[in-house]
Amino acid sequence: MTALEKLKTWLTTYEGHDILSEFYVDYTDKVPSNGGVFPNGLVEISRRKDILGNTIVENQYNFGLYYVFKKSPGDDSGAIINADWVMDFQEWVQEQSIIGAAPAFGDEPRTEKIIAQNGMLYEADEEGTAMYMVQLSVQFKKFYMR
Amino acid sequence: MADLAFNTPGGAVVERALLIAYLNTGTPAAPVWSPIGKRVEDSSEEFDWSDESKTDIFGNTYTTMKKPTITQTFDPCELDSSDAAQVKIWNLAVKDQDAAALASQDLLIVHAYAGTSPAAMFAERYSACAVKPTGLGGSSNVAMPIEITYGGTRTVGTASISNGVVTFTPATGAEYLVTFSVTGAGGARLAGAKIYINNQMLTTDANGIASIQLPAGTYEYSVIADGYTTVTDEIAISSAAVFEAVALNA
Question: In a 3-state reduction of DSSP, which class is residue A9?
């Protein structure tokens, strides 16, 4: 299973995920109750070598998560429901990461960290749809033994 | 052993991973050499030559040096079950608190950049090293920093590495003549003095002379005679006969 498949499968285990009818990769449409994950690439945070010649790399995958919900202009109660969903989702990610329930991406799962942050309304239109965005990052270590 | 050349390309610096210390996690007769320093990013052998400089009344400076005492620190040394050296040290230090065993560990330093790689790289084996963990703990991972003082008999030779298995071969089976000359009060040659070296006892003859054949290495010896203060020192044998003069004081 690729890292993206692993992440996508895990995200569907969020209990609020069932309000989404579809969850895509690189989703660009604005259909309510749909969502998607946008891979934003891999960042190498550090590369260290020990005196035996082994290399330890610390990497970070970055993803953008987009969720489209209904929200008419001026619909404050709808906005609150959507915002609560986004906030709860971020806390769920944090909890999963802390208790070790999130998937492992590297060679030292205990030290891995998955963070969902900066969840916000990205775009809303007059047709009653709103797109919310959450930034997701996965920090993990890879060992390359000599 | 003849002078060695570095086997690394000219103009390129020697990679740190080509200098590795190994702990014997097997037995003295059937050693298993396990590397020390996993996840340690910086560690150096420190040489103490016991050098002393004196300046005489004419302003000339003279410096004396002795064989070095070599120490090395490995920090942080985070515990890892796949690190056989660490597991052995942890058992001796934390589980057993066996100070005597920790003070007599068998270590091998392989200089993989010198000699022929990977079949005959320069190596030095120290038979009785002090391996001292200085702590246990840390923030997120359990670390056990280690201080090592290389000691005991030093045997030089070559190491080969095949599929991660290190094999040490002493330089030669050759032995070299070591001659002691012991003098007592007024510089008189002292007969009957006892010399203890390499688990053997020698006795000086009427001329204060005693000899022994020994392989290359560094040996500690003691000279004892009635009415004199015992002298303990060490002698290094590399590739030639050695003459050691010992003056005893009453």
Answer: helix
Report pLDDT digits (tens) over B59-116.
Answer: 999 999 999 999 999 999 999 999 999 999 999 999 999 999 999 999 999 999 999 9
Query: Are residues B128 and B199 located together in one domain of the fold?
Result: no
Identify which of A1, A71, A69, A11 has the alpha carbon closest to the alpha carbon of residue A37: A11
- Of chain A, the percentage scoring pLDDT greater than 70 comes to 99
In DSSP notation, A18-63 reads: GG-SEEEES-----TTEEEEEEEEEEEEEEEE-TTS-EEEEEEEEE
Residues A40-71 as b/e (b if ≥16 CB within 10 A, e otherwise) read: eeeeeeeeebbbbbbebbbbbbebbbbbbbeb
What residues of chain B lie within 8 A of the CB of A146, using their CB? 17
Q: What share of residues in chain A are helix, strand, coil (percent, to 5)? A: 30, 45, 30
Give the ipTM: 0.73
Please report which helix (H) or strand (E) contains residue A65, including its range: strand A55-70
Prediction pTM value: 0.72
User: Do B71 and B147 belong together in one domain?
Assistant: yes
Domain boundary among B107, B137, B170: B170
A146 touches chain B (CB under 8 A): yes
- Search chain B and give the residue with CA nearest A48: B41
How many domains does one find in chain A? 1
Note whether B25 and B135 are same-domain residues.
Answer: yes
**Which residues from chain A sit within 8 angstroms of residue B42, using beta carbons?**
51
pLDDT in tens, B120-164: 999 999 989 999 999 999 998 999 999 999 998 888 999 999 988
Most confident by average pLDDT, A48-57, A72-81, B1-10: A48-57
B46 and B153 share one domain:
yes
Least confident of B2-16, B165-179, B194-208: B165-179
Assigned token pair, A134: 């959450």
The pLDDT, as a whole number, for residue B11 is 94
Q: Please report the number of interchain residue pairs, chain A to chain B, with beta-carbon separation below 8 angstroms.
A: 32
| Contact residues on chain B for A51, CB-CB shorter than 8 A | 16-17, 19-20, 37, 40-43
* b/e per residue B157-186 (b: at least 16 CB within 10 A): bbbbbeeeebebeebeeeebebebbbbbee
What CATH code is carried by the domain that includes residue B232?
Answer: 2.60.40.1120
CA geometry: angle at A31 spanning A27 and A33, to 5°? 95
